[in-house]
Amino acid sequence: MRTLTIKEVIEATKGVYSNKGFEILITGVSTDSRKINKGDLFIPLTGPNFDGHDFISQAFEKGAAATLCDRNKKMKVEGLSGKNIIYVKNTQSALLGLAAYYRKLFDIPFVAVTGSVGKTTTKEMIAEILKTRFKVLKTPGNLNNEIGL
Length: 149
What we know:
Blueprint: E1 4-5, H1 6-13, E2 16-17, E3 25-26, E4 28-30, E5 40-42, H2 56-61, E6 66-70, E7 85-88, H3 91-103, H4 119-130
Parallel strand pairs: 4-5, 5-6, 6-7
Antiparallel strand pairs: 1-3, 2-7
């Protein structure tokens, strides 16, 4: 991953920053606090049975450089003063905004496959054909959900 600064993350997510170090580097992104690497941005997502905001402290303990936090969940980060917290309207929307921002940093072609049936097989076939002539990056397996797109 190309590193981003906190300033770029704020711009991409339309967030409000709680600290002063705008040049701190983000070296990765994770939505799973168990898989945080040193320097990552933690993005806590909320689902019907979980709230990633409950794991923000754990993400910092594992080395997260910063986290996003829904503005209406500030109580989840009480006691974390001095940590790099970017408040956003909605962490899922912010993740999509960050992904769009990051994609625009690269001038490379991409292929999108849509439909109801056969997307994973089609993706695999396209990748096999293209890799005979080009360097190819593809998603591992099937990421059919709102985040994996």
